[in-house]
Amino acid sequence: xxxxxxxxxxxxxxxxxxxxxxxxxxxxxxxxxxxxxxxxxxxxxxxxxxxxxxxxxxxxxxxxxxxxxxxxxxxxxxxxxxxxxxxxxxxxxxxxxxxxxxxxxxxxxxxxxxxxxxxxxxxxxxxxxxxxxxxxxxxxxxxxxxxxxxxxxxxxxxxxxxxxxxxxxxxxxxxxxxxxxxxxxxxxxxxxxxxxxxxxxxxxxxxxxxxxxxxxxxxxxxxxxxxxxxxxxxxxxxxxxxxxxxxxxxxxxxxxxx
Length: 258
Hints:
This protein is 40% helix and 12% strand. The chain is an alpha/beta fold. The strands form three sheets. Strands 3-6-8-7 form a four-stranded mixed sheet. Strands 1-2 form a two-stranded antiparallel sheet. A hairpin with a 2-residue loop joins strand 4 and strand 5 (204-205).
C-alpha cells in the first residue's frame, strides 16, 4: 500500500527480503549484514582448499521448538560429501534453504497481497537498493553529525588530506548520492532517528569507520556489518571523488563489498 499510495515506510527490511520481492537471487554477500557468524562460516568453506576435512554433507540443521532437525539440501543429500568441486553448489543450496525455502509460505502470502496492489512487472526495473529508497524514502544526511561520529583506523585521522578530500566529496554530493553511499558502506540508507551516534552494526552500536587500505589504483571497499569503509590513499580530490562514484554505481556484485 505504501508503494501504491506513494507513502513512505518508517522502517526497512533486510536486503535479502527486498531481493525476494524483486525475484532476484540471494548471494553469500547478502548474508553478511543478516548473520555475520553464518556468513563467516560459509565464506571459510568457500575459501578453504581442504573442505573435505570438515566432513560436511549436503544437509542443513535447524532448531525447531528446541529440537535439531536435519534437512537434505538435495535428494540423498546426507550421503553426498561436500568437496572442493561441489562446495559452491552446497553454499548456494544452504543459502536458498536458510533464507528462502524455510519461509516460502510466509513470503508467498506477503507477495500475494503485495502483487495484488503493485504488479511485479512494475517494480522489476529497480535494484534492491533503489527499491528500499522507494519504500523508505530519502532522509536528510547531517554531514556534521556524520563527521563527529566517525572513527579512523590505520594511517588516517580527521586531519589527513585523504579524509579532508573525502568529506569535501560528501559535501559535494546531492542528498540522494550520500544515501546511496551509506547503503554501500552500511547496507541501509536509513540514518538512525538520533543520528549517527546510534548507527547499528552486527553487534550493536557501531560507528562509521574509515580505514586506510590498498593503493590508489583500487576502488574503495565496504564491510557492511562493521560500517567500515576501506579507503585507498588517492593522489588527488578529483581521483577520490571519481572512485567513490564508481564504487556507488558498481557496488552490486562488486568484489570489494563484503
